[in-house]
Amino acid sequence: MVSRRFRNGSTPTVLLVHDAFADTGTWAGTVRAGATLGTELVAVPNPLRGLASDGHHVAAAAGAIDGPVLLVGHGYGGAVASVAATRAGNVVGLVYVAALVPVPTILSLLSARFLAALAPTVDGELYLRRADYPSVYAQDLSTVDATVAAALQRPVVAAAFDQRWDPRARVPSHYLVATADRVLDARAQYRVAAAVRATTTEVDASHAVVLSRPDSVAEVIRSALST
Fold first, then answer.
1. Distance between CA 186 and CA 94 in Å, rounded?
2. For residue 94, what are the contacts with CB-CB under 8 A and spacing of at least 6?
3. Rounded distance between C-alpha atoms, residue 30 and residue 32, angstroms
4. Most buried by CB count within 10 Å: which residue of 26, 42, 53, 94?
5. How far is the C-alpha of 51 from the C-alpha of 48, rounded, in Å?
6. What does the DSSP assignment read for 28-90?
7. Coarse DSSP helix, strand, coil percentages of the chain, rounded to the nearest 5 percent
8. Hey, which residues does 49 pair with through a beta bridge?
9. Backbone Cα Rg of the chain
10. Closest Cα to residue 100, out of 27, 165, 24?
11. Nearest-CA neighbor of 182 among 137, 223, 145?
């Protein structure tokens, strides 16, 4: 949980919400690249327990900040950020990074190739098979980096992909489209961006864009902060 901060409210604090099959460490490059943004970047743990509970957790983190907040969500974290933005009154903008939203459900947006690479656990959670992780999720990372990311992934409750959420947050939005994404293809990303009325930017990257192109992620955040 993010501790309460006292700010003058002039520049939003940036809260980073990670994807399923990932953890807060995936934002390390973005935090480094965002060192010149003139505000604090904080990676919020995403519990990966479902949209309602995950959204409540992130909304609580945002609400603990005394000042405006810009939420940045990657993949499933985009859907969670959308939910959180409807619950926290100080969220002033959203940045979606190769992100999902429940329109109509997350499951309906995911590629067949990605779905085939998922493996269930006995507890009703989903992992991305380690052998498939580099080619499906992170094909633009080195073999070593993709293998490390696969080993560090966190599972998501399977039911999260079938959940719906409405209404949507009515705040200015930006969307970074990863054109080489094999989890959520570029056409699906543009549909999502249209659904949330987001300003779009393209980058040639895999779904692991926060790892492979953190500089591009930081630049979209910069644009959102100046909106």
1. 19
2. 70, 71, 72, 73, 78, 81, 82, 85, 169, 171, 172, 173, 174, 196, 198, 224
3. 5
4. 94
5. 8
6. HHHHHHGGGSSS-EEEEP---S-HHHHHHHHHHHHHTEES-EEEEEETHHHHHHHHHHHH-TT
7. 40, 20, 40
8. none
9. 16
10. 165
11. 137
DSSP state letter for 98: S
Token pair 């409540």 is at which residue? 56
Output the CA–CA distances (angstroms, integers) from residue 46 to 50, 81, 83, 205, in the order listed: 10, 10, 13, 23
**Exposed/middle/buried for residue 142 (C-beta within 10 Å: 0-12, 13-18, 19+):** exposed
Q: Is 222 exposed, middle or buried (0-12, 13-18, 19+ CB in 10 A)?
A: middle
Entry pTM: 0.94
Reading across the β-sheet that carries 41-44, which strands appear in turn?
41-44, 13-17, 69-74, 91-97, 173-178, 199-203
d(CA 81, CA 71): 6
- 10 Å Cβ neighbour count for 82? 31
Report the Cα 101 to chain-centroid distance in Å: 10
User: For residue 56, what are its two tokens?
Assistant: 């409540």
Tens of pLDDT, residue by residue over 11-58, are 899 999 999 999 999 999 999 999 999 999 999 999 999 999 999 999
CATH code, 9-225: 3.40.50.1820
